[in-house]
Design brief:
about 130 residues; alpha/beta; Rossmann fold; two-stranded antiparallel ribbon; 7 helices
Length: about 130
């Protein structure tokens, strides 16, 4: 049973330099049932520069960037750092990323993965896990 959803930043939550408000609305709705993480290969403090603190606090339980943790996707340690921070096992997580190689790496780390193409496709893919 899925307990956590982990989102990538660029190409998923942020597209063309701005936040995808419709996706943020979905994340906020999902947060009442699942732990939500934001995992991105950005430099130290990068996520805090991209998002208002209020947005990060409201939408995500854990926010990790490769610059802050010292490892980057596709390294297994990056995914494990997120599951540890969320206090869940990889087997109960779905990584949502727009990079196929990072999705495969998440699967090797023990997670489920969804390659992000669009909000409509994500909603369809989440339904396969019983997440509406």
């Amino acid at each position: 049973m899925i307990q956590a959803l982990i989102f990538d930043c660029y190409g998923v939550v942020r597209i063309d330099g701005s936040s995808d408000q419709a996706l943020l609305d979905l994340i906020l709705a999902l947060k009442s049932h699942y732990k939500i993480g934001l995992l991105s290969n950005v430099g130290k403090g990068g996520l805090q520069r991209l998002f208002d603190t209020e947005v990060l606090i409201a939408h995500f339980d854990v926010v990790l960037s490769s610059g802050d943790i010292g490892v980057a996707k596709p390294e297994t340690a990056a995914f494990i750092a997120m599951t540890d921070a969320l206090s869940v096992l990889p087997e109960v997580c779905i990584m949502i990323d727009d990079t196929a190689a990072y999705c495969r790496a998440a699967e090797r780390a023990g997670m489920e993965a969804i390659e992000y193409w669009s909000l409509a496709a994500l909603r369809r893919d989440l339904k396969q896990y019983g997440i509406a």
